[in-house]
Amino acid sequence: MNKAWSALEKAPEGSFKSKLHSLGLKLLSRVKPSEIFLKSIPKQLTGVEVVFPSSLNPRLVRRRLRHIALRGTIVHKNYFYGSVTLLPVTSAFAGSEKLLELVSDSSKNRNSPEKDHGNAAAENDSEKETHPPLIMQASEELERLIGDGNDVSKCTLKDISKVFDLNTMDVLKYHQQQN
């Protein structure tokens, strides 16, 4: 990560990498110093030495450190709960990415510009990856159930759900969202 950050820092002025570095610096400047301090504490730490000016009361220094740690814990728990709450939404995005991968032309995946043509190992690894084929299947039974397709009723959707073993409530919700 440090090497990548250094590369961004050394990028020519005005380049995309330079702009990305500037954006990163702006974002980092918004991070509270106490967060940077808390991040610097390794989990394996078994003791800590705190150096402070002799003019300060040791109890006040300890109280301040406890306050920083407690406040950080509360903030991190809130972010954790927020992340857990948003997990279903983010997993839906991951599902849509997977669907896009499955319905995209597999020849595009094999000839992507990201592929390292100079590296034989990378080529062998990409050849080992097999993407399931997209199976398209026309259904005369679905055609019969839909009819002319101009106005699909709830009864029709329920019948389609039964025949194709779909969750009726999900189908109805999706249909409602589309209209």
From TrEMBL:
One cellular component (GO) term of this entry: mitochondrial inner membrane
One Pfam family in the UniProt entry: Mit_KHE1
Biased composition (Basic and acidic residues): 107-118
Residue segments, region Disordered: 104-132
GO biological process: potassium ion transport; proton transmembrane transport
PANTHER family: K+-H+ EXCHANGE-LIKE PROTEIN (PTHR28062), TRANSMEMBRANE PROTEIN (PTHR28062:SF1)
Name this polypeptide is given: Uncharacterized protein
The organism of origin for this protein: Ambrosia artemisiifolia (Common ragweed)
Organism lineage string: Eukaryota, Viridiplantae, Streptophyta, Embryophyta, Tracheophyta
